[in-house]
Amino acid sequence: MCFSQVVKSLFLLVLLGGTLTQVGCFSFKYPAFKNENGSQLIMINSSIQLDAIQVTPDASGASIANYSGRAFYKEPFRLWSKSKGLTANFNTTFVLNISPRTPPGGEGLSFILAADATLPQNSEGQWLGIVNASTNGSSQANVMAVEFDTRKSYQEDIDDNHVGLDVNSIYSIKQVSLTNLGINLSSESDITATVQYDGKNMTVYVASKLVFSLPFNLSHYLLEEVFVGFSASTSNGTELNCIRSWEFYGSDIDDGDDDLEFLWLWITVSAAVLVLSGIVFYLYWQRKQVLYADDPYPGLEDQIKGSSMAPQKFKLKELRKATANFNHKNKLGKGGFGTVYKGLLANKEVAIKRNSKNSSQGKQEFIAEVTTIGSLHHKNLVRLIGWCYERRELFLVYEFMPNGSLDKFIFDDEKLGMEEPTLTWEKRHIIIHGVAEALDYLHNGCEKTVLHRDIKASNIMLDSEFNARLGDFGLARTIQQRGKTHHSTIEIAGTPGYMAPETFLISRATVETDVYSFGVLVLEVLCGRKPGNQIEENDYNSSIVYWLWELHKKGRILDAVDLRLNKEFDEEGMSCMLVLALACCHPNPHQRPSMKTVLQVLTREVPPPLVPMERPAFVWPAMPPSFKEDSGNSLSKSQLSPFTELSGR
Ligand SMILES: *[C@@H]1O[C@H](CO)[C@@H](O)[C@H](O)[C@H]1NC(C)=O
Ligand SMILES: *[C@@H]1O[C@H](CO)[C@@H](O)[C@H](O)[C@H]1NC(C)=O
Ligand SMILES: *[C@@H]1O[C@H](CO)[C@@H](O)[C@H](O)[C@H]1NC(C)=O
Ligand SMILES: *[C@@H]1O[C@H](CO)[C@@H](O)[C@H](O)[C@H]1NC(C)=O
Ligand SMILES: *[C@@H]1O[C@H](CO)[C@@H](O)[C@H](O)[C@H]1NC(C)=O
Ligand SMILES: *[C@@H]1O[C@H](CO)[C@@H](O)[C@H](O)[C@H]1NC(C)=O
Ligand SMILES: *[C@@H]1O[C@H](CO)[C@@H](O)[C@H](O)[C@H]1NC(C)=O
Ligand SMILES: *[C@@H]1O[C@H](CO)[C@@H](O)[C@H](O)[C@H]1NC(C)=O
Ligand SMILES: *[C@@H]1O[C@H](CO)[C@@H](O)[C@H](O)[C@H]1NC(C)=O
Ligand SMILES: *[C@@H]1O[C@H](CO)[C@@H](O)[C@H](O)[C@H]1NC(C)=O
């Protein structure tokens, strides 16, 4: 467990604890009312028509005189909590439209908060659907309303065009005429009204004009839970009262039994304390383990230092500094081996590979990479500058390749963007030649034959001049354990699509399997196509190789060439190279040319090897070569016999 995980756990705990007192949200928004919205509303003597709630609907033909109705949002809203001493706040905006049917119209519409979602009997006329004669003035009514009154129906009503604040009665504790504000409720036009309650003041705006704002404590009058909605009524004077749109935002003070909540709080806090002490103890214990545990790679340092070929050893501190503490901004890539970071060491750009904890690269591979590959110097190999082994982590420092890997240039037009042109035929030729040189050097140029075992476009790096640099030695692969007989292909190192058919039978890499991968790479570079069928990667028959054999059979091998080259290439050189690639991908490993021959063909010293018109069947064991054109054309070193592999491979 690392520090960030501890922080995450702590954060989670805080969140968990937080939910107990968290203020949520009770909100909804109806830009218009559709019939489907009816199920979310409680409607009594009201209905949805013409995209609006008709609180007193025009019941076709029937008189709407002496009528009252209500419409509520289905879920109740928790207004306050006595036990917690909390009061919710809310704001709501709605568009109302009142169309008088008689001159004058009547009676009015109101926004109400009511404990009871039913409609009081006989609440028509002056009662506005808020109360009736028996509940008026009674604290049992449990209702609060902001009335939009269109009729002066009793003495205290100031006029027939006002807004009032009513509590448990139709008697308004505050009323303001809209006439002075230039607003006419009965004008049949849409009027926007906003009611806000911040826990202290009740504020009403109509048509964006402040009507009133007064200190008001809802919890003095209403029950903890209320339904929010509208009511309206008619009398002898009738009108259509509709709500065209409605939005409501209310804070949601959590429900729940107090004692239970304290219990939960107590449990959460104790759990947090327990988990925290656990984490602290674990970290302490782990640190001790780190300090005193056995070295996971014992003797690694000595083995590397014993080799005279080993490159520079770096301190973790230096690498940290070079990569700004392995900042993710410096990340160049990620693979099975771990992560690669860009860094600046002694003012030189470098690529630093940091082995992940569960990396497939073991100690032996690391040592092999550092001591053997570290000693290899070739202009077409990515150079290993140094290494580091500290705090149970392995690091490799390479020279930095500004143009990244080849695959992004040959496959992905997207990433290429407009600035980077497709690689020209000349560039592709130079790249292939470079890889061939590197591979020839590995196979024939060093003391021991070195097998790369994972030649593919993503392992070819490009320097600033687009020269190919073979990289990724031993990192992207699993180690092939000798003496074990595996039938599982999972253990076989390499990348599907690049692996020779016999790989699965002999379960190990050879010089010939490297040549095969090289052939696939050449085809990719020339055709701009991925090696396998994208759909079935392991389907040998649908691979690029099989495709090329088919075109070759039809004598149309040049059809395979990447269209992005716009036919700008030397046809003879191109077909020569394609045939060479096919020869490298010969199903019979004995028939594949050596890298020496490949180089000679590339420099046009010798013609490409002859390949049959039709793809030969894959036969195993492979027929030994029946004849040899010349000694240079055959494999001099390994011939599938035990070959020198790097230690640990
Ligand atoms: C109301 O109904 C319409 C139509 O079905 C739907 O698109 C909209 O989301 C509903 N509104 C709400 C707030 O549920
Ligand atoms: C309105 O609703 C009340 C109560 O639900 C009911 O008694 C009354 O008959 C209804 N009025 C009309 C006109 O439908
Ligand atoms: C409405 O009610 C009032 C008083 O209750 C009554 O006088 C009047 O006749 C009623 N009007 C209609 C149209 O029913
Ligand atoms: C309405 O309330 C919501 C949530 O409480 C808030 O985000 C919003 O700003 C408020 N709007 C106004 C106009 O006060
Ligand atoms: C007022 O409404 C209540 C509840 O609907 C009802 O019980 C009561 O009888 C009504 N009073 C009158 C006078 O209609
Ligand atoms: C309604 O109740 C209020 C008291 O809250 C009272 O002042 C008013 O006169 C009553 N109105 C009617 C019409 O009974
Ligand atoms: C409001 O508008 C209606 C319809 O246009 C009109 O009859 C009425 O006189 C107006 N009332 C006021 C107070 O302006
Ligand atoms: C409202 O009244 C309640 C008691 O009913 C009280 O606890 C609360 O502090 C009051 N709120 C304000 C803003 O005065
Ligand atoms: C509440 O309204 C009063 C009167 O309008 C005003 O003086 C006061 O500042 C308001 N308080 C808040 C918190 O809005
Ligand atoms: C309603 O109209 C009827 C006649 O249509 C009349 O008798 C009654 O007094 C009126 N009531 C009110 C409250 O205006």
Automatic annotation (TrEMBL):
Residues 326-611 form the Protein kinase domain. Residues 1-21 form the signal peptide. PROSITE patterns: PROTEIN_KINASE_ATP, PROTEIN_KINASE_DOM, PROTEIN_KINASE_ST. It holds the Pfam family Pkinase. Keywords: ATP-binding, Kinase, Lectin, Membrane, Nucleotide-binding, Receptor, Signal, Transferase, Transmembrane, Transmembrane helix. Belongs to the leguminous lectin family. In the N-terminal section; belongs to the leguminous lectin family. This is Protein kinase domain-containing protein.
